[in-house]
Design brief:
Blueprint (H helix, E strand, L loop, with lengths): L1 H18 L5 H5 L14 H5 L7 H7 L7 E4 L3 E8 L4 E9 L6 E10 L10 E10 L2 H5 L5 H23 L4 H23 L13 E3 L7 E8 L4 E9 L20
Antiparallel strand pairs: 1-2, 2-3, 3-4, 4-5, 5-8, 6-7, 7-8
Helix pairs in contact: 6-7
């Protein structure tokens, strides 16, 4: 009897959405498990690749994790990308190499999901992660404040990511869209920080900076600067925003892990 009541409630809900103009496709999709690879599996290559340590040869062996993915590359950049849900979801793992030793200098992961509602999905419309080895000059320049330093670093990250995407974006519609979205994301964050520079302090907090993106209300960005290894880690979440940082990976100013 309980099962019949539940089924009746679901059918009534679907019918209501259909009659109000939502259509039946979206409500039904919300009851499905997403097809593999699952959203939480997509950053697997990004997690395995280490900035300043992983070599270009190792990257080529590990960057492609799933059969649906394709690889695009230039002399200094490799991008692995895929899409599903009839192209409403796509993801990009991109790696750029140091021109001298060909170890990884920068790594990126971008995932976009227009239908982030499947069961067990992360419900995020956009996820962006990056780790970038920055030059000593940018990190150690005499800034008037730590907030000015953070804003200058975000500007530098925009320039670098734009150049890296330019290396491969011509090879795929997905890469081209990813390049545009990453660019818009950084520009929006910089707009917010230029309006209120004091907000840059939020970037360094465990919960990050909450702001409104152009397309979605809920957005959060975080920036961690590792001055020991000269590596800057960026995290951005748009949509279902949760805590940015896993506490076991949070480090202090000396680069020491704080548990």
């Amino acid at each position: 009897m309980k099962h019949r009541c539940l089924l009746a409630a679901v059918l009534t809900s679907i019918a209501g959405m259909f009659l109000t103009g939502c259509g039946i496709e979206e409500p039904l999709e919300r009851l499905w498990f997403e097809e593999p690879p699952y959203t939480n599996q997509l950053p697997e290559a990004y997690r395995k690749i280490e900035v300043q340590k992983t070599t270009s040869a190792e990257v080529l062996d590990m960057v492609k994790q799933y059969y649906k993915e394709l690889v695009s590359q230039s002399e200094s950049t490799v991008a692995c990308w895929g899409e599903k849900k009839d192209t409403s979801q796509f993801w990009v793992t991109m790696v750029a190499f140091d021109e001298e030793n060909y170890n990884v200098a920068r790594k990126y992961f971008l995932a976009v999901d227009e239908k982030a509602w499947h069961l067990h999905n992360e419900n995020q419309n956009l996820r962006f992660d990056s780790q970038v080895a920055l030059d000593e000059q940018t990190l150690s320049e005499a800034y008037t404040s730590e907030n000015e330093r953070r804003i200058a670093i975000v500007k530098k990250l925009l320039e670098i990511s734009r150049d890296d995407f330019t290396e491969v974006k011509h090879d795929s519609r997905v890469l081209n869209e990813g390049a545009m979205l990453a660019n818009q994301m950084y520009e929006r964050i910089l707009y917010v920080l230029n309006e209120s520079p004091a907000l840059a302090a939020r970037l360094a907090e465990p919960n990050g900076l909450d702001y409104k993106s152009l397309a979605f209300d809920k957005s959060r960005a975080g920036l961690y600067i590792d001055d020991v290894n000269n590596i800057v880690t960026t995290k951005v979440r748009i949509g279902d925003v949760k805590k940015l940082w896993n506490i076991k990976y949070w480090r202090n100013e000396k680069g020491e892990v704080i548990y």
